[in-house]
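User: Show me sequence and structure for the first protein, then do the same for the second.

Assistant: Starting with the first protein.
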Amino acid sequence: MARINLSGGSYDARAVSVAAQRVLNLYGEPVPADDGEPVRFAYYPTPGLTTVTQPGGICRCAYQTTQGDAIFVLGQSVLLLNRNGTTTVIGTISDYATPVRMSDNGTTLFIVDGTATGGWYCDMPSKPGSGTYGSLVQISDGAFYGSATIAIVDTFFLFVNPDTTNWYTSPAQFADESTTPFDSLYVASDSTSLSTIIGVAVLGQYIWLFGRWQTEFWYDSGAADFPFQRVQGVTVEAGCVAPYSICTIPTTPNTMNGGIMWLGQDRDGYARVYLGQQTIAAPVSTFPVDGALQDMGDLSGAVASVYQQDGHVFYVLTVPGQPSTWVYDVSTGLWHERCALDSDGNETQVRPLFWCAAYGKVWAGDRENGAIYQVSVDALDDAGTPIKRQRSFPHLLTNGRRGIHRQFGLDMQNGSGVSIAVDWSDDRGETFGAPRELTLGTSGNVWPTLWRLGMARDRVYRITWTGQAQTALMGAFIDIDPVRT
């Protein structure tokens, strides 16, 4: 029988008649060609969720401090997540549902919520894990103007003055308003596109200043009047659509010395996802991903997080109200979708909205119910709710003739005994028929197989399951006999 090899590519063509490959709650991992294995890619289940604690409130941020602590904002409450899964209240901030951002300089934790008066800070413990944070203080300094995003370089906190062309900084090594007050002259403007500044981020020693249509770069020049200077003659001809989509990326084989990802837009078109390194950037979203994002309407509320697990670095992009979340695996350059299931079994947005790593684990905060989860590949459901996993296969054609599909054998790791639904499309990926069931074996030496599958000129197979299974999907085997017509 011929092998159907899953080559890794998905969401690479706009028309399903060209490529109908969907990857839901699975991620691909290449098998090195030098290994001599017969498969090119294996697909593994995305991690599940285990509820650790549920203090309540909408999750608005998850952050790992420079000392390694995990800080969450749930509703108004700023919480330290302890190693044992308990939480300690640090203080309270504004009572909004909007995201917030945090940064710290090793001694002071700073929080912003995007409003003109929305800034808070507190002392950090002298050593990681001690849990002794100072009281949370709302900043009242007249030279603080609020900000949607926050970054840090050379101990300066960096902010964006909301709805203006200005950005500004704190003094070096900010501690509190009385001993290290803000300087009203530490303000600069977008000098290239002259548009509203959406957000700010730092990669290495470069400050990325995201305008609406363009991104420019600054660096610490050490000047006395204003410590930063623009990098002359260098811009990225794309701005930012959503400030909370801006994330820094760690070093991977595809991002030496790290990178930045964001949901961007240029003057000439709609939104795309960009990946930047040093002072250059390019879109990494494929045409189908671009189309899906651009069909969503207002993207200004999009939220992204980055986390690394089992060597894969995931950029998780969620647009509130949409039924699925788009995830870019920076390590492999592949996209996949993630979703949760509602009480009726329908696809809905994933439960977490923010992710962070701390204490050797990955954590996430729920978008509605105030739960904090541990994100683990050993968890096989979403805190008690099944996870729907689906992979559609490449088109199978028989040189324009009809073919008799005599046998379909699933190449998939066994051992769990879960049921796999197999359905297929004979109209080039537009619609799928009633599924037939296969059962994975409870031992490794099982080849789940279907027989007598009808006739088609162009067929797309698809498999779906919700059972709890530690598995790997490598592809399938197919026996097709072409006929004369």
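Switching to the second protein now.
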Amino acid sequence: MLSGKFLKMLAAFFMAAVLAGCASTSNEASTGEFLDDTVITTRVKAALVKDPMVSALDVSVESFKGAVQLSGFVKTAAERDRAVKIANDVPGVTQVFNSIQLR
């Protein structure tokens, strides 16, 4: 039979392992940050789809810790600028990196 002290130590060990698995580093997002970034990416993409000026199929969106990376190809500088503005206006976005190229 396992002693109460051993069970407490075992529980503490597992808790530490779980918490360590949820921690983030500068190169990796925690589980919560990953979910937040997924929501941000979805919101930015949805906002791009709603806008008649931006061809959302031509713009890729990636998020990491609230920073959004836009890439792809658009026809005009105005379309590129509009995509950046839309991304900046999405709640949770901390900064936007624009790698959209003109065709």
